[in-house]
Every structure is written in structure tokens, then in C-alpha cells.
Design goal:
This protein is 72% helix and 3% strand. It is mostly helical. It comes from Litoreibacter roseus. Residues 58-180 form the Peptidase M50 domain.
Length: 261
């Protein structure tokens, strides 16, 4: 009963957060149901199922969609009434808004909310997997896979490499405390990402490092007109980033080490 109570509390918290994002903001616009969008979605989901297997493919797709939905909710909370959700999982750029965040605080909140909102379904999936292990073993297995995949994906997404969410969080905080060092630090982390890609022979990390260098070369990556974080907001932002990363690391630790190995 205590476990179920805890799970119910987590879902209540997520409901209140999601509700706040849509209070007085109108209905959520879902785009991407055009033939091309549907075709890309089918390819993306099919590729995930083919390469990862049915359970892992569906779990990863669901996790990515929840992650992107978190960005949309954060956009709406920050006053972006045009924020909308594109049904093209695994293709990136699903959370859409025509307006840039007005402040670095909003930008950081929107960036971290993707991984942040995934904590509740991840923890709930672990709890339900344990509760259904004997009665519904297949459902229990899927819930466990979903929880671990969610933790691993969001942990990697929070690594401090541009253009991942973690890289953007690092850039925002650095720009607030040491604006002159922002570009140098971001370039340094991109170099670390490239070195890791070479050492681990990782295609994914190679792509991320190239994207990071490209985005830095053609644009600064942050809105110069944004109001910078205050010292207090910066400390709170770093704390939230560390806590969110730690939770996802614990949740996805088995898959994380499997991927690294």
C-alpha cells in the first residue's frame, strides 16, 4: 500500500505540472499528422523496433515522446501559447515554439523539463514492474525495460555536450556566471565529446560532437537578449541539473554500462 501510495503521489505531482502548462493556454496543438510526418514516424518507430527489438523499440519511442512532451509543457508554463508537439519520435525537434525563451531561467527550465518529467513514469514503471512480476511477467518485463531505457536515454541526454540538453544547461549556467568563458568551455566539452567518441568508437558521440562544433561555428547558440540567471537561480539550476542526472543514472545504470561496454 505504501508503494502504491508513493506511485499515486508521483502521478499527482506530474498531473499538476502538466495541468499548469495548459491552464488558460488553450489546447495542445499536435502537428505532424501530414502524410510525410506519418511516414517519418513509421520509419522511426520501425527502425527502433528493428534494431532494438519490439520491447526495447517501443519503450525507447515512448520514452522519447514523453521527454519531448515535457519540453512542450515547459514551453506552455513559460507562456508560449504556440508550443506544439510533433509526432515524429526519434527525429528530434519534436517540441516546437516560434518564440525564443525570454530569460535564461525560462530557457533552462524548458531544457531540463524534458528529462525532468520522465522521472515520474520511470519510477512508476519500476514500482509497477516489481508489483506485477509474478502475476503479469510480460507486462513486468516491458515496464522494467521502459524504466531502464528512460533512465539511460535521459542520462546520456544530460551529458554536458552541446547540442544535448545537458550541453545547453551547461552553456546557460556558464553564460550566467562567466560569460567570457562560455564559448571556450562549450568548445572544450565538444572536444571531450569527440575524444570519447574516438576512444569508445561511438558513432552517436561523433555525430553529437560534429553537431556541437557546427552550431558553435554558425551561431552562438544562446539568445543575447535573454535576461541572465541570478546567482540564486544559477545555484538552484545547477542543483536541479545534478539531481535530475543522478536520478536517471541510478534508473538506467544497467543499460548505461551495457552501452559503454
Amino acid at each position: 500500500m505504501l508503494v502504491l501510495g508513493g506511485a499515486s503521489f508521483l502521478f499527482l505531482m506530474m498531473y499538476l505540472i502538466v495541468r499548469a502548462g495548459f491552464s488558460n493556454q488553450g489546447a495542445l496543438n499536435i502537428v505532424g499528422l501530414d502524410p510525410q510526418g506519418v511516414f517519418l514516424a513509421i520509419i522511426a518507430i520501425g527502425a527502433a523496433v528493428y534494431y532494438l527489438g519490439p520491447l526495447y523499440g517501443i519503450a525507447v519511442t515512448l520514452s522519447v515522446m514523453i521527454h519531448e512532451f515535457g519540453h512542450v509543457v515547459a514551453f506552455r508554463i513559460a507562456g508560449h501559447e504556440d508550443a506544439r508537439f510533433r509526432l515524429v519520435p526519434l527525429m528530434g525537434g519534436i517540441a516546437i515554439s516560434d518564440m525564443a525563451p525570454r530569460t535564461q531561467a525560462d530557457d533552462f527550465f524548458i531544457t531540463l523539463m524534458g528529462p525532468g518529467i520522465c522521472i515520474v513514469p520511470m519510477v512508476a514503471a519500476f514500482i509497477l514492474s516489481d508489483l506485477t512480476f509474478q502475476t503479469f511477467p510480460q507486462a513486468s518485463q516491458f515496464l522494467w525495460i521502459f524504466a531502464v531505457a528512460t533512465g539511460a536515454l535521459n542520462f546520456f541526454n544530460l551529458l554536458p555536450f552541446w547540442p544535448l540538453d545537458g550541453g545547453r544547461c551547461l552553456r546557460i549556467v556558464t553564460d550566467a556566471f562567466a560569460p567570457r568563458a562560455t564559448t571556450a568551455i562549450t568548445l572544450g566539452m565538444s572536444a571531450v565529446c569527440a575524444a570519447l567518441a574516438f576512444h569508445l568508437d561511438s558513432i552517436a558521440l561523433t555525430i553529437f560532437s560534429l553537431l556541437g562544433i557546427q552550431s558553435l561555428w554558425f551561431g552562438r547558440g544562446l539568445d543575447l537578449d535573454q535576461t541572465r540567471l541570478s546567482i540564486g537561480q544559477g545555484v538552484l539550476s545547477v542543483s536541479a541539473y545534478v539531481m535530475t542526472s543522478a536520478v536517471h543514472f541510478v534508473g538506467g545504470v544497467q543499460m548505461i554500462f551495457w552501452i559503454i561496454a
